[in-house]
Write a structure and sequence with these properties.
Distance between the termini: 22 Å
Radius of gyration: 20 Å
Number of helices: 9
Order of helices and strands: HHHHHHHHH
Number of strands: 0
CATH class: Mainly Alpha
Strand content: under 5%
Structural class: mainly alpha
Shape: globular
CATH superfamily: Mitochondrial carrier domain
Oligomer: single chain
Largest sheet: none
Helix content: over 70%
Amino acid sequence: MATRSEETVRSLAHWQFLAGGLSGFIEIICFHPLDVVKTRMQIQGAHPFGGEVVYTCPLDAIVKIYRYEGLSSLWKGIVPPICVETPKRGGKFLMYESLKPYFQFGAPQPTPLTHAMSGSMAAILESFLVNPFEVVKITQQAHRGKRLKTLSVVKYIIKHDGYGIKGLYRGITALVARNAVFHFGFFGFYNALKDIVPSPEDKTYNILRKVIIAGLASSLACVMSVTLDMAKCRIQGPQPVKGEVKYQWTISTIKSTFKEEGFRSLFKGLGAMILRVGPGGAMLLVTYEYLFEFLKSQNI
């Protein structure tokens, strides 16, 4: 029979998974349009094809996508994230909590480095589950015509490119690197800043404090990882010339982008990424913390 402590651990794992999944679902629904904008701006080259709409900034992209493709186009590619992100976020937070004891390095309590390392490791592990869904999502988001059906995109990719690094797992190295760097910064900055900024007694102000800190941590993590995210989008999205693979590996993609489009191109989509991940990350992390505490206290 399981001991009481083992049952408690299992119960906590259930709440961690459920709280992570619910907070992830809410965040996806609210902020997916900015993910579409980020993808469009990152795959946009220095010399757009004739007749192709050019996006100058996130607001310009939102207006033009709405004008030429309709309001629903801002939610292109949302099916893959909903299918995978909700359970994935639950699994990520569960792994994050489970890995923390292994990165305390003798400290009596988890340190910011503990949170950074465990968050980064959990994100690396989730990359192998998420990559096929990312490829399908970006293919849908990049398409400027009518909305592509998710299953049709999956079948097309498998038929023409297969399951490996040329198909559903293309861009896996860029995704692993992006996730590792982003989550190291996100969880590390959040917990470091939370320890520095004093906690007010008023609950409302305390929630606001956490939201601001989480938003700032998300934004800093975006700056750290945006170049890797740009490379990932270019590798996973449609190639500039049909039938020719220009973007295949992370380092070569970054080098060619820098050479052809200049230093600023390495930060393409940063504004949209901060607008999407800054408040989105704040909502995700703070919602997770409060949902977890609520579920645990209710003993559902």
